[in-house]
Amino acid sequence: SSVAQSAPAAGGKSSLPVPIQHKPTNPRVLQHISAVKAKLNRNKNISNQHVGKKPRRHWRDRVVVMVRDSYWLHAFWELTQASISRIESAMHADWHLARPVLRLMEVTEGGTTSASERVIKDIEIHGGLSNWYVHVDDPPKSYRIEVGYLAGDKFFGVVRSNVVTTPAPGSSDAIDEHWTDVARNFDKIYAMSGGYSSDGNSTELQELFEERLRRPMGSPMTTRYGHGADMLFPPSKGFVFEVDAELIVYGVCQSNAHVTVRGEPVRLRSDGTFTLRMNLPNHRQVIPAVACTPDGSEQRTIVLAIERNTKVMEPVVREADD
Length: 322
Description:
- By secondary structure, the chain is of the alpha+beta class.
- Helix content is 20%, strand content 34%.
- The protein contains seven helices and 16 strands.
- The strands form five sheets. Strands 5, 6, 8, 9 and 10 form a five-stranded antiparallel beta sheet that branches. Strands 13-12-15-16 form a four-stranded antiparallel beta sheet, with no helix packed on it.
- Strand 15 and strand 16 (299-307) form a beta hairpin.
- The model is unreliable at 172-181 and 218-233 (pLDDT under 50).
């Protein structure tokens, strides 16, 4: 409520009434105002540290995106209270108008610089959430998601995600929202979600899988069998694993021509095609293929330069309590 009070003007004349504001004193009104402010603060605070029954020992800022099918992405995020407080301080007066959002960006030309990213849309979120499904169009395309705050046309980012690429329509079946299904299709989702990229975010993607499924996701074998693999398949002292490769050379020529590969004659089929299976040693080799007309009046040569580089990595042995 307010009371109108006339203020004296210059020359002794009174001016227009000046309202005097009074703070509400009704307990119910004060309680309602307090509840509204608390709700606004909860919705604006997207830190995950105060969400959930079990407190975690180590919190950090991260957002991880997975590809579910050609038109849907699934984003998971974890934000610390310290980062939210830091953004609030950086925004100053803009914080009062700030809205937490997921910013979807289309990534082109490798997606490692801001110049190659285009903002598609901002999706408004609120406190208490830790994941969101995002609809995308016109696959296949690459995307990145950034979690932050939007005030007018000013965006203050908190954390950026890995880059993911949606498959072409019909190239893969949809993956449902159940994590058991995600486990069965781990390799497929991991690859589409940028797990094998070199942008440094694959570790967080792997950690997300391990946390949600509560088992190691370090390899397809471990993914498939989990911790029970140690009991189902006890380690063998004579464990052998070898990989080799062969080279297949094929071509086509006039059916009555004379063809040699590495100086050895090649038998042509009736339609002039030929196929050779050759050893592929672990080094660089040059393979000349020569074809001559039946009368020897014309000769053509094609040279294949092939290199094989095989690397045998150090074995990883997991202890029973890992």
